[in-house]
Give the backbone structure.
Amino acid sequence: MNDEVIITIEGLKKHFPVGSGRFTALNGIDLSFGKGEFAGLIGPSGSGKTTLLNIMGTLDSPSEGMAIILGESVGNLSARASALLRKSQLGFIFQSYNLFQVYTVFENVEFPLLLQGIEASKRKKMVLDALEWVGLTDKIKSKPAQLSGGESQRVAIARAMVKKPAIVLADEPTANLDAANSHNILQTMEKLNRELKTTFIFATHDEKVIGYVRRKIFLFDGKVAKDEKIEKN
């Protein structure tokens, strides 16, 4: 990892209305992330990790404080500007895969490139490269229903990575996978992080994921309880 800071979060609070009152999901978060990090937001359900991930992904905005993602202040972005940032610089991986069932593997991975208006010949090379990264070049014509859970999640990774985003946000990406598939998925993401210098940030309470990350940020009741970096060979 180098010292280039690409995410800065200061005094971040997020409130949600509940009945006549409000629930504070994030309560004064201060964090920064550098290029090439492989970090985990760790905590029990309700600790605020998915809310924080959503704000970093411009899917939600702060109630108070600020979140600056790749030089853009999330709270000040229009819906269009947020969509453009997601389209060009952010990749998302979810526990439920979120694949289009009527599309082939190739078409699922190609979809983000269609949104960017990239020409067909370049799209094809980018999709094939992404599928090679995750070891699925033999499945390009398959539909999601013909894939295992591990294969479906690898398609989701290829789709997230195909545009070579600066940041990939992964919300419980191993939740629906057995141990062997979880390790394969995590090793694939670790390899992409190392080779492409993409920043990966996970929201998780899965011990398997926690074993791979090089920075552990523990959240409890919407606050950072501990932030530790792990030295790995």
